[in-house]
Design goal:
The complex is a heterodimer of chains A (about 290) and B (about 150).
Chain A: E1 2-4, H1 11-23, E2 29-37, H2 48-57, H3 63-70, H4 89-113, H5 124-129, H6 141-152, E3 165-166, H7 168-171, E4 186-187, E5 202-210, E6 213-224, H8 225-247, E7 250-262, H9 265-268, H10 270-285
Parallel strand pairs in A: 1-2, 6-7
Antiparallel strand pairs in A: 2-7, 3-5, 4-5, 5-6
Helix pairs in contact in A: 1-8, 1-10, 3-8
Chain B: E1 21-22, E2 25-26, H1 28-31, H2 65-79, H3 83-86, H4 101-114, H5 134-150
Antiparallel strand pairs in B: 1-2
Classes of the chains: A alpha/beta (about 290), B mainly alpha (about 150).
């Protein structure tokens, strides 16, 4: 049964709504679950400690670790300003250096990171910044998309500073090999692949710009709502913020479409999940 | 309208949802979850361009564990978005600073680059407890570099 949830304003509410909706379905599983957050950050992150407690009891990765697979926020030093056309050269250099330092630090970490359990196929952020080479020498999709997004709003004769672009059709050719430099989506699954399970669950990120507002849509084959759901939302929200800061676009909607979503009743127990949702409800009710 | 950097702002660019905006510029520190009183730098203090090595190129093989620890602390300062945000309120039980796994792996990568190696450790065969503190990392790096040097 397809579930398109009402758009909400923060990821805490979005996550709780998704879990609550899924857990009411047979076996706690939904198909085509669509979550929309209208202002993805800042999340209150009130729920992270409670979710982490449940994850820790099952020896699962923490919310922060899951989020870092999509955007390693601790390696990014955000300048106090975002990109604008006409930005003074030193400020532009600082902005670019912050992104470059992030890419470089992650590339340096990759050879070690790949030796960790579950990382042999690479990581999401690796595929974004080093597609085609798990050890860091691949194509930097993210950097290219930021360049394209900056160029799209440039106040010149060609673009006339337009602030709307839908690159979705180009994205079908986005094989990450650098052949579709104009594509705004980030392709995370090899279109030539024949695998039937395993990494990656996040297969596609679309970036659509309307009136200079960047909307991000992430498509998951499968989303485990407790083990990964909150961390995924957090990581995606940070990724969206990064692209916005680096490209000078405003934050738009963050949407997550999961072809299959699982509230993981068998793993965590329905009672524990409902207790977590109750905790979420209480936290939202607090002033 | 002028922005802080002297250029003319296109008034539509950079505007965000009203609760995030301060005089037309989002609070980027808050957006990325940094503490309200810090986390942003005002001038580049590390890798100026892509491909630049983070930190210096010390002779790690000649260092003691304590020296490696000091070196890693220096790297942490250069690498971390906001060092205060990376640390637990209390020190790790080994008496050195606690670090997140994300930062630990980044430090291992930077140390490997400084040692001229692609990687120093195999995480699958590493005690994850050693990744929780600067002290644990220093012991890992020291052992790996010495092992490599004597091999």
């Amino acid at each position: 049964m397809t579930l398109a949830l009402e758009p909400v304003q923060d990821i805490d509410t979005a996550w709780a709504s998704a879990v609550r909706s899924a857990i009411d379905l047979p076996n706690g599983r939904a198909v085509h679950l669509l979550i929309t957050v209208t202002s993805a950050l800042p999340a209150a992150l009130d729920l992270a400690p409670a979710i982490d407690a449940l994850l820790s009891a099952k020896d699962e990765y923490s919310v922060g670790t899951v989020a870092s697979t999509i955007f390693p926020v601790e390696l990014y030093r955000p300048p106090a300003f975002g990109f604008t056309h006409g930005l003074a050269a030193p400020a532009l250099e600082e902005l670019d250096a912050a992104a470059a330092a992030l890419y470089n630090a992650y590339r340096q970490a990759l050879p070690s990171l790949l030796t960790a359990s579950g990382n042999s196929m690479g990581t999401y952020f690796q595929r974004m910044i080093s597609y085609g080479d798990r050890e860091g020498g691949g194509f930097n999709q993210l950097q290219e998309r930021i360049k394209s997004l900056r160029a799209m709003t440039a106040p010149n004769e060609r673009t006339k500073g337009r602030g709307t672009g839908n690159f979705f059709n180009l994205d079908l050719a986005g094989d990450g090999a650098g052949e579709s430099a104009g594509a705004a989506g980030l392709q995370l699954l090899d279109p030539r692949g024949r695998k039937e399970r395993g990494f990656p669950c996040l297969v596609h990120i679309d970036l659509t710009v309307v009136d200079r507002r960047l909307h991000l849509l992430a498509v998951y084959r499968r989303q485990n709502l407790i083990t990964k759901g909150y961390g995924n939302l957090l990581g995606l929200a940070r990724l969206q913020a990064f692209i916005c800061q680096q490209s000078g676009l405003a934050l738009g909607d963050l949407a997550v479409l999961a072809a299959f979503a699982d509230a993981e009743e068998q793993h965590y127990g329905k009672r524990a999940i409902r207790a977590l949702l109750d905790e979420a409800e209480q936290q939202r009710a607090r002033p | 309208m002028q922005n802080l950097h002297g250029s003319t702002l296109d008034t539509d660019v950079g505007l965000s949802d009203s609760h995030l905006v301060t005089e037309g510029e989002p609070d980027w520190s808050r957006l990325f979850g940094a503490p309200a009183d810090g986390g942003q730098r005002t001038a580049p203090s590390y890798a100026e361009e892509e491909g630049a090595e983070i930190g210096h190129q010390p002779d790690l093989a000649a260092m003691s564990v304590a020296q490696v620890r000091a070196y890693l602390l220096g790297l942490l300062e250069e690498l971390a978005r906001s060092p205060d945000a990376l640390l637990d309120d209390e020190l790790h039980e080994d008496g050195t600073r606690s670090v997140s796994s994300q930062i630990a792996v980044a430090l291992l990568g930077a140390a490997a680059a400084a040692a001229g190696r692609k990687r120093l450790v195999n995480l699958a065969s590493t005690d994850y407890a050693d990744l929780r503190s600067i002290g644990g990392l220093a012991r890992l790096v020291h052992g790996a570099v010495r092992q490599g040097a004597s091999a």
